[in-house]
């Protein structure tokens, strides 16, 4: 029997104990409604403000507001629909990459169907990268919004966000949204320098809690709110604030930011070992790019063996990985991202994603390979 290995950290991570503690303490001690005028309210409001300031400090943000959301799906919806609808009288053209998360593409498709927006999806090359030249060529006088994910959740490719930001600085009427969910505290991104107007993050991807996240909004950006009601969060997201969630998010960011460089080196070393060992197995195709790639994602295919079959075989050995992203896994379809990368049905239907967390070192590679090698052999024999 192998030691249990959770290698599905891009789907979600285990919360830090400190995050759970702070959530519990905030819930019981600061239960006041931040909008209340009495002391209970004022104390809770102060705590919310402190959480915002902490997040802004950790991410090096000066001229930005933090809007707490229920996660990145909500943040992406709020950013895209809110920005597009605020600009509807100026133009109805949006640009995005063809490998965005469904919370981006489904929002854009709704804008298309319900409001007549025209969406240009930038194609990616075989390594999962868009080209800046394609972005430049796609910009039109009626373009109002560009949405580009930072790190792709399935293969780990890191898009040229800073270069895209430079291009967009020439177009003051275009808002720039970045889905930073898989990149935060994995791949540095200078949000302010890159000229990003809207940026989505999700707590449960870095040892925070599910149901916590934020939309980072550059000061002065006009958004039509998705959720209307009271004047909480400057009217961008009505509803009594989830104070304990906000504080727990700030705590997770604080913990994730500590000792970042050392962790980066550890994750990179572990990933390199995985890539090396995988490349030694005959017939295994590595889908993760060699360069400009996040340190925690390794994606490979074993053509001829369905991803789900391999996943469950590894599960029998107490090793937990994923096929496509968790949000698409139950559709049982080949990976759309890999198809967009031109990998073909065979590779896209047999891809496995390993995703690491901060505490996993190179030590996790060998036990994984010791389960994978005989597993592939056995499955190949069964199929003969
Ligand atoms: N964007 C990306 C790139 C993601 O990986 C995810 C989570 N699978 C999301 C958005 C959605 O985040 P949440 O689970 O917080 O709604």
| DSSP strand tally | 12
CATH topology of the largest domain: Aspartate Aminotransferase, domain 2
Rg, Cα atoms, Å: 21 Å
Ligand inventory: 4'-deoxy-4'-aminopyridoxal-5'-phosphate
The helix/strand class is alpha/beta
- Helix tally? 13
Account of the protein in words:
There is one protein chain. It contains 13 helices and twelve strands. With 384 residues, the protein is α/β, with parallel strands linked by helices. Strand 5 (143-149), helix 6 (161-168) and strand 6 form a beta-alpha-beta unit. The strands form three sheets. The chain has a seven-stranded mixed β-sheet, with helices on both faces. Strands 9-10-12 form a three-stranded antiparallel β-sheet. The protein has a two-stranded parallel sheet with strand order 1-11. 40% of the residues lie in helices and 14% in strands. It has two domains: 5-13 and 259-383, Aspartate Aminotransferase, domain 1, CATH 3.90.1150; 17-257, Aspartate Aminotransferase, domain 2 (3-Layer(aba) Sandwich), CATH 3.40.640.10. Helix 1 packs antiparallel against helix 7, helix 2 (39-58) packs parallel to helix 7 (243-257) and helix 3 (72-86) runs parallel beside helix 4. The structure holds 4'-deoxy-4'-aminopyridoxal-5'-phosphate. 4'-deoxy-4'-aminopyridoxal-5'-phosphate (PMP) binds next to helix 3 and helix 10.
